[in-house]
Amino acid sequence: MITIISALFFIYIALKLYISISQISYISQRRKEEPFLLSKEEYLQAGNYGIEKEKLSLFSTILEYALFIFWINDGLQFLSATFSELSPTLETLAFVFGFLAINWLVSLPLEFYQKFVIDEKYGFNKSTKKLYLLDTVKEIALSLIIGTPIIIGISALISFEYWWLWTFFSIFALMIFINMVYPTLIAPIFNKMSKLENSELESEIETLLKRVGFKSSGVFVMDASKRDSRLNAYFGGFGKTKRVVLFDTLVEKLQNRELLAVLGHELGHFKNGDIYKNIGMVGFLLFSIFYVLGNIPTELFETLKLEESPQIFIAFFVLFSPLFSLFIMPLFGYISRKNEYGADEVGSELAGSPLYLKEALKKLVTENKHFPNSHYLYIFFYYTHPPLAERFEALENLK
Q1: Spatial contact of 110 and 62, defined as CB atoms under 8 Å apart
Q2: pTM of the predicted model, to two decimals?
Q3: Number of domains into which the chain is organized
Q4: Does residue 236 lie within any of the structural domains?
Q5: Domain containing 140: what range?
Q6: 183: exposed, middle or buried (C-beta count within 10 Å: 0-12, 13-18, 19+)?
Q7: What's the pLDDT tens digit per position in 255-304?
Q8: Cα–Cα distance between 147 and 97 in angstroms, integer?
Q9: Which ranges of the chain would DSSP assign to H, the alpha helix?
Q10: The dihedral of CA 335, 341, 344, 349: what is its sign?
């Protein structure tokens, strides 16, 4: 059993490395050609940024494999033995948080390099090391506060028959609940949320919301620029907690009609029911992972010299989830890319013309330094949005 799992994980890692190398080679060649959407200088800079990110991704993938080998050989056994003298509850908590902490600490240098070297070089990072440290402390505190009852709850459920099914329902429900409270309780811990001061724009946004039946608790601007210069916006929450959140960078860079086109696109997902489709797809992935975890042969635990304990199941979930995700993502990505065309159509209609969405996309690509072309394998496995050339062609066909 362990031989099969190791072989599958090796294939997973080899595939990720091949995709990254293919993407680097593809961008290296395409950046020499005539630019698309961007000026020659912007096109070259976006290509360089894409290559540097993907090279870092190569190191991240190799590190992921090294951690996997470490954990399935001696790491999990060592961690189990370290906390074996504690009470069952404390042992589980110490093991899980220790396991997560080691993974995080090992990957921390790459995260730091991405933010303070690559993103700094290309003008994205606006955060200071002090702010980064403060964010990290907040994230750790939230992980402990939210994670502790989750781990204890999973430990209790594992004593029941079909524990994996009840755990799936519990975690899935918790994910939906966190999404409900995120914009009002969690996001403000990291960012200041203020009411949109542009009354004319707010009125136009409210009109858009009414046209598709989206009831929100308000339109807010988030001070994203204190950490990053990228442009973005999102709708968060469910029911009465729903709110529209605009990055201050987006409000600054886009004209009103362009911004309305971007929001119209997001409202298109709401109107077309894509949000619920995405929830369903996440639920399917989660169910698949828990089903496999709940039916792992005893032989695997014996081979690894591990007990069938809650903490080991949680460690397996963390180790094997990426494996599931990579091979299921092509299906999710295909559905998501189809949904994007529908959302573009609604966004163009709400904004009054596809031209506004096209102009907005051009600015998003420029400001976010997104290289407009990718290798077909990269698109197949990772893209949730259609390539920009295809989106622009579809927008050209809209009246």
Answers
A1: no
A2: 0.90
A3: 1
A4: no
A5: 2-193+266-396
A6: buried
A7: 999 999 999 998 999 899 998 899 999 999 999 999 998 988 888 888 88
A8: 9
A9: 2-30, 40-70, 76-82, 88-113, 119-121, 129-157, 163-181, 187-190, 199-212, 248-253, 256-271, 274-294, 298-304, 310-351, 354-368, 376-382, 388-396
A10: negative
Below-70 pLDDT ranges, the chain: 238-241, 399
Domain assignment of residue 77, yes or no: yes
Structure tokens at 157: 């459920």
Q: What are phi and psi of 200, to 5 degrees?
A: -65, -45
State the Cα–Cα distance between residues 173 and 175, nearest whole angstrom: 5
Tallying the residues shown for the chain, one arrives at: 399
- How far, in Å, CA of 122 to CA of 42, rounded? 11
Cβ neighbourhood burial of 292 (10 Å; 0-12, 13-18, 19+): middle
Q: Give the Cα separation of 231 and 224 in Å (integer).
A: 9
**Cβ neighbours of residue 162 under 8 Å, at least 6 residues apart?**
294
Round to whole Å and give the CA distance between 104 and 207. 44
